[in-house]
Amino acid sequence: MTSVLTTRVPSERITYDVRDKVCIPALTIGSDQDKRLRLLTLLETFEQSEDIALAHRSPGALIAFHDLLLALMYGVDAFPRTEREWREWVEDRRPLDEVAKALSGSEFDGRLDLFHPERPLGQNADLLPFLPRHGYGPAQLDIERAGHSAQLAEHVHLHHERRPPVHEAFAAMLVLHGYDTGGRMMAQNEWLGRAFTYGAVTRNAMRVRNLAMGRSLADTLRLNITPVARSAAGRINLCWSDPRPDRRVFTGPGASRARPVDGPADLHSWLGRSVALAPARRPDGEIVVDRVLVGGGELMTPLPPRLLQDAVLVAGRPQQARIDRALWRTSPSLYAGADPDNAKGCDLFSRLEGLGRRVDILSVGLLTAKSSFLGWVSETFPFVGALREELYLAATDGAQWCEKAERAAAGAAAVARDAAFPRARPDERKQLLARLLSAPQLWARYEEHFHRLLDDVASGECKRAARARFAVDLVATTRASMRESLSCLPESGSGFQARLQALAQLDAALHNPRAFPSEFLEATVPTATRVSPAEATTDSRALAGWLAKLVTSRNHTLLKALTVPEHHHETEARSLACRFAGTDEIKAAHLLTARLFARYHRSIPTTDPVRVFGSGDLGAACRRIGAGRERGARDPGVERLFRLLVMPSQRVEESHLFRAVERLRSVNAVPPHWATLADDLAAWSGGGQVRERWGESFYTPGARIRRAATR
Fold first, then answer.
1. Residue 333: helix, strand or coil by DSSP?
2. How far, in whole angstroms, is CA 91 from its chain's centroid?
3. CB–CB of 337/314 below 8 Å?
4. DSSP character for 107?
5. Using N-to-C axis directions, what is the helix angle for 426-437 and 463-486, rounded to 10°?
6. Residue pLDDT, tens place only, 431-457
7. Alpha-carbon distance 422 to 416, whole Å?
8. Which residue, among 68, 74, 62, has the nearest Cα to 18 in the 3D structure?
9. Is-contact 275 119, C-beta < 8 A?
10. Which pTM does this prediction carry?
């Protein structure tokens, strides 16, 4: 197969020794203005490791690069032998220049060349003879571009025109060795054997990989290097051709036989795939990867606990990435892994616990569906040995609170669904619930608050204060998200009622003492208390006082002037009612309130303070309309009237207001609190808050109404 690009395969051999050719992306450490993204050679990476940190768009590549560097440290005998020596390495900041010096020696000449004819770095030289005729586009090398590991699923990506620079292909190859999920390869039986055409799951594809992130690359490598005896480090795998008696073959009875890992050097450099890369030059001289071949790699036996240094065990097995459950929701297991009695004994977490500083843990997992690539999950968690118990409790309680809050939101969404769509078919009910809940968005918002909780605890802040702040954020987020999700319901009729009932159900669930602890219950108090008549403005209270005085002094002249048009005292009454207002909008609300007050008290000669000043808002007052037990929302006529009152518009229809007051007067019911009504009418066009407050009072009786009646 020939390349579709204007690349050419030169007659001279192309070399690419990563010791002196750029291959690793890094970010310089310093202020934001001084940070620069650079491509470094392998030797430069170790030499400048105190001043840089690795950087890559792919979390999987970030893990793969660190694995490569750790494997090379074992390969040159630069690693601690004991736990005590490891601690000295970390605390004394042992320089890593020795690694660069060892790699620059003659022992590694030709062993770190990506295009060596006999020992290509990270590849299987036995595939090179098949490259000219059978090689495909390099997109199959990159699992993120290919989209799946089973190369027989589709062939479009195999003929993609883009030819990547060598450093990109190098990163993709490292990721392939560590994260390929298995499947049929674009290979033929006669190349290396029938077993070569099928790739098994590689070492990191089915588990979450954890990396302790230091202040620099050198600090990160020192934190993650596992102290072992010289004889237990194992042998590094730089090429499939490296002499190894137990290396896999793809023919005969041993083609499917797995081999054990002999140490961390072997583990970090495990060749999960057989790969071959063919280089070419662009007209400008840049070296690119033109064609590749990929086949089956080595088979690994189950890892013993000593080689699962970074693994978080869940039910005795390494934690896996799940598409339906974010990593932060299982983070308590990470902090539990540092327990001295964990199943692995001494591991990465137990060593970190002995340090007197914070270390962030980067967790990376691969999401797949069968052999299809779905994406990466990547989270960072703070770890402080002295605060491990506090972090564990915060992570446990925080995750549980989020799950309970989500269940409360789901219950509220179910109430809204049943109220708005009572006749929905069984197959529609689940879809309607998902539409009204928006659970993925809710969990995404919870994640930010959860990480803030852990950061607060890790910084040494008061544990109770951090938990209380988290509870407040969680309650506010749940309510806000629920309101957004319910906004798809109609603004009037059954949709309005369903929304209000759902929000009331959510408040009741969030305030359940059997489900949530005291910090959570305290967080619901500020928003559970609504506007009460005592909070009416000074102007509206002055208006209410003047109106009450008209009744107590039996000033029927002004009362009649407010109700009868063209009364000879109409101008006087209107001017007196508007004198307490500062703007035209408030004047209109005060005048309308005065007219409604006069209509109610026109023929009720009572001086009872509750009836004179009123109680509750208009929604609470409408609940009192009716006869016997059929009051408020239970009376179809009252409910129709209330829906007319809360129709979305710039102002409330006066005719509906007068009708409501007439109904209250006819059944001798307590009117609304007039000062509150004046404020509500003035704020009616401010975004729908008044409508929702009236609706909540009408459909869901609460303590606020009873408090108002006792004033």
1. helix
2. 34
3. no
4. G
5. 130
6. 888 888 878 888 989 999 999 999 999
7. 10
8. 68
9. no
10. 0.77
